[in-house]
Amino acid sequence: MIGIDGKVLFKDKINYRIDLHPSYAVNGVFRTWEFDQSERVERLKYYTATENPNPIGLLEGYKEGGVYSEGIIPVVPYDSRIHYINLQGDTVFCLNHYKGKDISMVSSFFTDHRAWFMTEDYKYGYINPKGEVVIEPIYDNISPFHNGKAIVYDKQNDKYIAIDTNGKVLFEVGANGKQTHYPFFHNGYCILGNFLYNEKGKLIQRLPSTIDFASPFKKNVALVQNQETRLWQLIDIHGNTIGNSQHDNALGMIDDFVYVGDTLAKEWEEDESKYMNVYIINSSFASSTCRF
């Protein structure tokens, strides 16, 4: 494992196929999928991201699990339901039932001290890091909290609304009948359908209807995918295209840089991995190229 400074933290410590399941550390903890030859199953295991990684939790691993946040990790043992464990591997609390209904799914992590959960009847609510339900499971679709707000959907009344971390309704927003893209607030804005809202719920801009998927805006710039060509490009907060370049893949936006890539379909390795030209675009929209 290497750090963001490029220095090797450790090597040859964990025996697993990194080409099948690359790993990364979140808050000092990383996870791996390791194949159990005797049982013919893959087991999810957790380790500390240290020079000598220490295992966390059950040595035999877990069926499913999330990432480490708020001091706990959601995991599903092979013979049990949803547990939240600490770095010592101890169960802090379980989340199996609420008001007579099974809890069938939980968020992989906490944001703004909240994590969503889903009951057996496909209703969503939120818990705090103590496992206490702070927002009742009454919504039909939800998003993670960000900047103190979450966008949730009330199917009965056909409404998208913004709520705070205590469940208070802040304002209603429209989606224009389109699928949501990244329905959470980031840097003061939220994209819902092809509408762009500010943090007070005011409609700022109608984005092009040809957009099929969009990233959050960062410094008034977003990555969007055209629903017809499936190519990615940059737009500004007014919906105008930035530059003429279009790319096969959107790899993310980190700090002041946008990462996009073009697949070189004719170049394949024996293990069927493929090459890609990766373009790193800075805030001045000047690009440089790497090859992976």
TrEMBL record:
<dbReference type="InterPro" id="IPR032774">
    <property type="entry name" value="WG_beta_rep"/>
</dbReference>
<dbReference type="Pfam" id="PF14903">
    <property type="entry name" value="WG_beta_rep"/>
</dbReference>
<protein>
    <submittedName>
        <fullName>WG repeat-containing protein</fullName>
    </submittedName>
</protein>
